[in-house]
Amino acid sequence: MTLPRRTFAIISHPDAGKTTLTEKLLYVGGAIHLAGEVKARGANRRARSDWMKIEQQRGISVTSSVMTFEKDGVFFNLLDTPGHEDFSEDTYRTLTAVDSAVMVIDAARGIEAQTRKLFEVCRLRSVPIITFVNKVDREGRSPFELLDEIADVLALDVSPMNWPIGMGGEFEGIMDLSSGRISRPEGDSRTFQGKQDEVPLSDRFAEEVELAQAGYAEFDGAAYRAGDLTPVYFGSALKDFGPAELIAALAAHAPPPRPQPAEPAPVSPDNGEVTGFVFKVQANMDPQHRDRIAFMRLCSGTFKRGMKLTPTGHGKPIAVHSPILFFAQDREIADEAFPGDIIGIPNHGTLRVGDTLSERADVRFTGLPNFAPEILRRVALKDPTKTKQLRKALDDMAEEGVTQVFYPEIGSNWIIGVVGQLQLDVLLSRLDAEYKVAAALEPAPFDTARWVAGDAAALKELAEQNRSAMAKDRDDNPVFLAKSAWEVGYIAERYPKVRFLATRER
After folding, report:
1. 18 a known binding residue?
2. Which residues does UniProt call coiled coil (predicted)?
3. Residue 346 · residue 293 · CB < 8 Å
4. What is the mean pLDDT of the chain?
5. pLDDT tens track for 276-334
6. Does 137 count as an annotated binding residue?
7. What is the value of pTM for the model shown?
8. What is the rounded CA–CA span in Å between residue 307 and residue 413?
9. Could you tell me if 23 and 39 are in contact, meaning their C-beta atoms sit under 8 angstroms apart?
10. Is 35 marked as a binding-site residue?
11. Going from the N-terminus, what domains does the chain have, and what CATH number goes with each?
C-alpha cells in the first residue's frame, strides 16, 4: 500500500528561524540524528539545506531545497525556500509544487513584508497554511496581539492550537489546548526534553487560556484546507517546542496531493497516466561531476524507474534511468514515485523550468511565470578567452531562474536581468566558484524589460523603429528594453496593438 503523502513548503521572512525549524522537523522525523546537523560543517554536513558557497558564507538560503522523510506511516516532502525577497521567483515556483505550507513568524516581529508577499502567493493558489509563531522563549509581543495581527493583515480566521505559558524570562512552557497538558522546559538550556504535566495554572495564565479558547475560532479542517483558516502553533524551534506538533498536524490535517492546473483540464492525482512538471533546475549541486538536475513534481500516476516520458519542450521521449530522491546533499535512486513526490532527473540541458513531462504528451501544466527583471546589468569578462564558458554559465543559470539573459539586436554585450541585488552577488560567486569565470557587472543603459506580443505588423514596426532597444531572450522571444517605467508607458501608447508584458508563462 502506498504511504500517504504530504508535500509542503516552509515560508518566512529572513531570520524568523526557518532553517532551524527545518532542521528540527528533520530531526523529529528521524531524517537526521544529531541536533545541529543542518548547520554542521565537514562530514556532518549531509543534511544541510544551504549547500552553496555563498549560502555558507552569508548564512542565508538562496535556493530551494528538497528533503524527504517518513514518520508514523506518512511520507513527507519538505521544500525549503529562500526567505530573502531577492529570491522570490525561486520561492514562487517552489510554491507551485506544494499542497500546503508552514508559515514561520517571529514572536517579536509579527507579520513582516516578505511573509505577507509569500502568503499572497499561497492565497493565489489556495495553498492552506499552518502558522508557527517562533521564539516564544524570548521576549516578544502578546500572543493575543500576534493572533489579531495574523487575522487582520492576512484576512484569515485564526485558531490557536496551543498556548505559551509566559514568554521570554517568564516562559514556563506550552499548553496543548485540546488536552490541557503542558510541555515544560528542562535543564540549563531550558529545552523540551519530554516533560509534560497538568499542573494547575496561575489565575493570570488560566484567564489567558480561557480567553484564547473563547475568543478565536475552533479548528475546522475543511476551512483550513480551503485556505480560510490557519491553525496557529506557538513554540521555539531552537528549544524543541513545536516541531513534533507541527509534523503531527501536517499528517492529520494537511491535504494529500491535490489536482494541478493544466491544459486542457486540471490533472487529478488519481489519473492513471504519469504526469509531472519541472519547477526548478539546479546545476552543479555536485561540482565534481558538473551535474544538472531537474526537480519534477509528480502529479499523477505511478512513476517507475526507466520509464519514458515526453517533455513539452521538444516532444522527444526521454528514458528516466536514474531518478533521484533528495535529502539535501544526499541522494538515492528512486525505483518508483507517487503523486506529490519530488524526484530529480539528471539531464544535459533537455529539461527546463516549466516543462511538463507525461506519458502521452497531451497535457501541459500552467502557472509557472517568468517575472520582468527589476535590475539590468552588462556582463564584462576579465578574460576574453572565456566567452564560451560564460555563455554556458549564463544559460545554466537562466534555466535555473537565477538570472535572465537578453541578447540585444545591436551590440555584443549580453545583458542579465534579476529581481534583486543579492542575485547579482550569487551570479558572480557562482561564475567564479563553479565555472572558473572571472567577470564584472557594468551598468546597462536600460532600467527594465518587457516581453512584447500582439499584432505581427505592429511588432515589426516596433522592432524597426526601436532597434537599439530590442533584444531576444534565450528562447528567442522579443523583448523591449526600456530606460524607465515612463518609457514603457510612452511606447505602449504609441503601439496600442502591442502588449508589453511584465510576466511571461514558461
Report:
1. yes
2. none
3. yes
4. 85
5. 999 888 766 555 555 688 899 999 999 999 999 999 867 788 999 989 887 655 678 88
6. yes
7. 0.79
8. 42
9. yes
10. no
11. 5-65+83-253 (3.40.50.300), 262-365 (3.40.50.300), 369-505 (3.30.70.3280)
